[in-house]
């Protein structure tokens, strides 16, 4: 017997030592909060203060949750057990915590082993927030897991394996307000599944496998996320006198073929239907001959039915509408006419060939309009339409030959992107208006203009007079000729100027007079000289890559020393000597010359060397050698001249002597 006792003690002692060692792992204490996350714990610590209110055990290696020692901490309000390996919950373990309000069991193994064998989580009388995401829970298991939780307001079942919601799934949760079910595989929601949740206001069903939402009837719901499913149809239940509260609806990344009938949702302020297959009517409205939805049980009106107009009439409070990445070829006038509160409209990446807003008061509150990445050839904007528009994105279309005052009519326009079109700017007010050109002068609100890649051949004088631009991009217009005075009027406002990739050989812009200029991009040209900055300016970033600069003399760059912070010079045939200003910046660190280890230069016709390795004395030594060589060559030439002269004199005297002798 004594041998057995000794053997038992020998086995028990290492376990006790290990347990004691684990208890010595220090949790961080802040007031009455214990932070024990990521400490490699295998059990709940038992030596913490008994009056703690917050216990964070996330990121450990817990497998079991037992009433002892967890039940010691009866004052707990917040318990985080996420990211462990929990597969067993002792029955009634959370009932020993009468004040528990927030319980986080996310990313464990609750669907494995005996975690749910008896009673699930049991009653949670005071819990208001419960996170069960990432536990591989499947349909039928959730009902056994969830018990009575009369005060629960927030529940997350995201990132599980649920395929179906039944009428009994959420019984016992009468106060629930937010329900997160994203990233499951839900394919079916039984009628009445949410009837037991009269206060549900926020429902996330994104990233599931739903194909149809028919008879939507959650009148109390304010936020609904249905993004990233396979939904072909969305239909609101036709209930007389129903007052739907839905204000936020996300249907992006589905398979919708048409704009749904939303007439019963008058409180909608946010609607996202991007990345679908939506098309609008391209002809007059029809009756029963319209195109129907492909689903067999879809009973909505035809695509071209009068209910389509009723749907748009109900959206008078809509402020944000995203229809990007669809197959829209035309926006009917009647659709835009009713969106009187719309502030943000995204129609990018569709098949639009024309867009018009001509009526007085059309889209009066619109602040941002994105029509980029379409095939727009025509743009018609009325003189008193889009009165609040500040940002207009038209890049990557086929616009050309627009009316001259297309953008001058936009009274609040601040940012305009025309990159990748064929829009030609007119000259200033004193210049004749050429056919097909667009005026950019006299737009007092415009601050940012992008005309990169528009095949602009000539920028005429006064093109931006009385338009106080702060950013101007004229890049990627090969062969661009900038006339003298083309940027006149921008000297006191322009902060960013891009002339990249235009093949410029001469820069006919008096850059030193642009007192506010901070960023200047002249890369990808053929420039070899810059105007002289003799006085301090504001320029901070100067990009001269891939030009023909060999020298950046201090006489031209001296005015930049106090402001310049970054200089790009790769791809220029720099000379090692004569660039004293540049080498001084490198060695003194006043200017960050990008990738200086790649900058190379030449000592005359000698081999290329790294500019960062060039010292001032290297050029001085080279200069002395050159001076000595010049002196030697000069002396040699003078001596040769003297000897030649003496030889000539001797020859002349000899000839005279011979003549006298013969005589």
Automatic annotation (TrEMBL):
Keywords: Cell membrane, Disulfide bond, Glycoprotein, Growth factor binding, Leucine-rich repeat, Membrane, Repeat, Signal, Transmembrane, Transmembrane helix. PANTHER family: IG(IMMUNOGLOBULIN) AND LRR(LEUCINE RICH REPEAT) DOMAINS (PTHR24366), PLATELET GLYCOPROTEIN IB ALPHA CHAIN-LIKE-RELATED (PTHR24366:SF158). GO terms for molecular function: receptor ligand inhibitor activity; transforming growth factor beta binding. The chain crosses the membrane at residues 629-652. It comes from Cavia porcellus (Guinea pig). SMART domains: LRR_BAC, LRR_RI, LRR_TYP. GO terms for biological process: establishment of protein localization to extracellular region; negative regulation of activated T cell proliferation; negative regulation of cytokine production; positive regulation of gene expression; secondary palate development; transforming growth factor beta receptor signaling pathway. It is a single-pass type I membrane protein. Interacts with TGFB1; associates via disulfide bonds with the Latency-associated peptide chain (LAP) regulatory chain of TGFB1, leading to regulate activation of TGF-beta-1. Interacts with TGFB2. Interacts with TGFB3; associates via disulfide bonds with the Latency-associated peptide chain (LAP) regulatory chain of TGFB3, leading to regulate activation of TGF-beta-3. Interacts with LAPTM4B; decreases TGFB1 production in regulatory T-cells. Residues 1-17 form the signal peptide. The gene is LRRC32. This is Transforming growth factor beta activator LRRC32.
């Amino acid at each position: 017997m004594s041998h057995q006792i000794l053997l038992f003690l020998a086995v028990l002692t290492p376990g006790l030592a290990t347990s004691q060692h684990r208890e010595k792992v220090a949790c961080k204490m802040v007031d009455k909060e214990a932070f024990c996350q990521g400490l490699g714990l295998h059990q709940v610590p038992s030596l913490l203060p008994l009056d703690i209110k917050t216990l964070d055990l996330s990121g450990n290696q817990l497998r079991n949750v037992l009433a002892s020692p967890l039940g010691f901490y009866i004052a707990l309000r917040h318990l985080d057990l996420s990211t462990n390996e929990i597969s067993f919950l002792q029955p009634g373990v959370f009932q020993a915590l009468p004040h528990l309000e927030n319980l986080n069991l996310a990313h464990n193994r609750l669907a494995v082993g005996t975690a749910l064998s008896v009673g699930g989580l049991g009653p949670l009388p005071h819990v208001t927030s419960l996170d069960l995401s990432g536990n591989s829970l499947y349909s039928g298991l959730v009902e056994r897991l969830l018990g009575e939780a009369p005060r629960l307001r927030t529940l997350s079942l995201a990132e599980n394996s649920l395929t179906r919601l039944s009428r009994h799934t959420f019984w016992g949760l009468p106060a629930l307000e937010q329900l997160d079910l994203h990233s499951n595989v839900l394919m079916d929601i039984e009628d009445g599944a949410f009837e037991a949740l009269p206060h549900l206001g926020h429902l996330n069903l994104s990233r599931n496998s739903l194909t149809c939402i028919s008879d939507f009837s959650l009148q109390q719901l304010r936020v609904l996320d249905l993004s990233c499913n396979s939904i072909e149809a969305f239909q609101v239940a036709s209930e007389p006198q129903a007052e739907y509260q839905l204000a936020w609806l996300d249907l992006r990344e589905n398979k919708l073929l048409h704009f749904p009938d939303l007439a019963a949702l008058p409180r909608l302020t946010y609607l996202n239907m991007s990345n679908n297959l939506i098309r609008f009517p391209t002809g007059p409205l029809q009756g029963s001959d319209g195109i129907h939805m492909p689903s067999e049980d879809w009973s909505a009106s035809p695509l071209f039915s009068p209910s389509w107009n009723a749907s748009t009439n109900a959206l008078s409070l809509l402020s944000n509408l995203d229809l990007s990445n669809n197959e829209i070829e035309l926006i009917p006038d009647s659709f835009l006419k009713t969106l009187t509160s719309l502030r943000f409209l995204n129609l990018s990446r569709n098949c639009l060939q024309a867009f018009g807003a001509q009526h007085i008061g059309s889209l009066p509150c619109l602040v941002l309009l994105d029509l980029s990445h379409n095939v727009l050839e025509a743009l018609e904007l009325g003189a008193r339409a889009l009165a609040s528009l500040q940002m207009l994105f038209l890049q990557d279309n086929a616009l050309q030959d627009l009316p001259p005052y297309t953008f001058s009519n936009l009274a609040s326009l601040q940012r305009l992107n025309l990159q990748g079109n064929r829009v030609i700017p007119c000259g200033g007010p004193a210049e004749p208006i050429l056919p097909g050109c667009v005026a950019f002068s006299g737009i007092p609100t415009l601050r940012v203009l992008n005309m990169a890649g528009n095949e602009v051949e000539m920028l005429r004088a006064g093109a931006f007079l009385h338009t106080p631009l702060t950013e101007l991009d004229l890049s990627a217009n090969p062969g661009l000729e900038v006339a003298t005075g083309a940027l006149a009027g921008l000297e006191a406002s322009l902060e960013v100027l891009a002339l990249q990739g235009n093949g410029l050989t001469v820069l006919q812009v008096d850059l030193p007079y642009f007192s506010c200029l901070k960023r200047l991009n002249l890369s990808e040209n053929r420039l070899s000289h810059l105007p002289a900055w003799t006085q301090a300016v504001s320029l901070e970033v100067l990009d001269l890559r891939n030009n023909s600069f060999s020298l950046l003399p201090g006489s031209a760059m001296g005015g930049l020393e106090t402001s310049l912070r970054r200089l790009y010079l790769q791809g220029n045939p720099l000379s090692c000597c004569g660039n004293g200003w540049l080498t001084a910046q490198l060695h003194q660190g006043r200017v960050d010359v990008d990738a200086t280890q790649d900058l190379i230069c030449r000592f005359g016709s000698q081999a290329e060397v790294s500019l960062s390795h060039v010292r001032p004395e290297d050029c001085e030594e080279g200069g002395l050698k050159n001076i000595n060589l010049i002196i030697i060559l000069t002396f040699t030439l003078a001596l040769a001249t003297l000897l030649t002269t003496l030889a000539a004199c001797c020859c002349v005297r000899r000839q005279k002597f011979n003549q006298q002798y013969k005589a």
